[in-house]
Design goal:
Alpha-Beta Plaits; alpha+beta; 10 helices; Beta-Lactamase; 2 domains
Length: 350
């Protein structure tokens, strides 16, 4: 046994483990080949996407050289996908279309801001003579340093939508026309085509309010066809209807465009003459009477004369009135007075 004073034997150094042979480091050429293979795979996927996507896609460089294009846009340009690659966009589309698109591309290259909602109507290559509608958007493909690598365009065919919108607009126009027609029918007399009593009363009330507001006068004339019952009794209701139609046409053709003429009863007509006071209403009334006198009514027994009895009332005028209804009553009363005078003259003549 070793004594306490004996020396310890020197410790042996642990031998180093031999290193395992590792994998050889990738060479630069291998890395490049791998990257190229990956890029090729991505290009193949991108080409497949552009060839099969159902919308329009186009990618151009800042010098407007086409790198990728989808089938829809290639067909629209009348060429193949392969024929687009490497060619400048201005050489592939119509000059007038490029004149519209060039400012869009230039603006994106300058600002980097996308452009939305560009609508175009273009010839349909599959149906000569027809057009299709497209809605496009354009985006800048920007690198990390902010420079623009290219511009991506997305185009959608909205022809069906536009056709639906046109159809809707056409239906709306037809509906409005029908509504106007119905509105006209509601305010027109079906026999003479003149306005009816309801519309006349509405305009009379409106004109009265204007008179109260501005003081601008107007005249109302009530007219009745003389001996209308005798025309119906002796010559039939068809002759009576024709007489009313002739009177209505004569009144409408004699009055101004700003005047209103209406059939307000069986053989009774009314006219409203805006901006016409007592002094100026006389010549108008005389014209109306003369116009009707020139309208002989043809019958089986020969032509017969048509005449009117008229009564007028104006504001301001005498007697003073306080409402549109009162003004109408004054004109109506004067019309019946004129009819009685005419009847008395005819009786005395016999």
């Amino acid at each position: 046994m070793p004594t306490p004073h004996s020396k310890k034997p020197a410790s042996r150094a642990t031998p180093a483990k031999p290193t395992r042979p590792g994998r050889p480091a990738k060479t630069a050429s291998q890395t490049l080949r791998n990257a190229q293979a990956e890029a090729k795979r991505w290009k193949t996927r991108l080409d497949t996407l552009y060839a099969t996507v159902p919308i329009g896609l186009i990618y151009v460089t800042p010098t407007f050289v086409v790198e990728h294009v989808s089938r829809l846009i290639a067909d629209l340009h009348g060429s193949s996908i392969a024929a687009h690659r490497g060619r400048r966009l201005p050489d592939l589309i119509q000059p007038e279309r490029w004149a519209r698109l060039k400012p869009v591309y230039e603006r994106i290259l300058k600002t980097g801001a996308p452009r939305y909602g560009i609508e175009e109507e273009l010839p349909d290559p599959q149906a000569p003579g027809r057009t299709r509608f497209f809605l496009s958007e354009y985006y800048a493909d920007t690198r990390k340093d902010g420079t623009i690598r290219g511009i991506q365009g997305v185009m959608q065919d909205i022809t069906i939508l536009k056709q639906a919108q046109k159809e809707q607009a056409r239906n709306l126009r037809e509906l409005k026309a029908k509504n106007r027609e119905l509105d006209e029918l509601a305010i027109r007399d079906p026999l003479t085509g003149l306005y009816n009593r309801r519309f006349f009363d509405e305009v009379l009330a409106r004109e009265w309010r204007r008179f109260q507001r501005t003081g601008e006068g107007f005249t109302v004339t009530i007219m009745d066809v003389d001996a209308f019952k005798r025309i119906n009794d002796q010559h039939g209701h068809e002759a009576g209807d024709q007489a009313l139609q002739l009177v209505g046409t004569a009144l409408r053709n004699t009055l101004r465009g700003s005047d209103l003429v209406a059939r307000i009863g069986g053989d009774e007509f009314a006219a409203l003459l805006p901006n016409t006071d007592v002094e100026h209403s006389g010549p108008v009334i005389e014209k109306l009477q003369q116009a009707v006198k020139k309208l002989p009514l043809p019958t089986v027994s020969g032509p017969i004369a048509i005449s009117l009895s008229l009564g007028t009332a104006s504001v301001p005028g005498s007697p003073p009135v306080t409402s549109a209804a009162e003004l109408l009553r004054v004109a109506d009363k004067r019309m019946y007075e004129a009819k009685r005078r005419r009847s008395a003259r005819q009786s005395n003549a016999r």
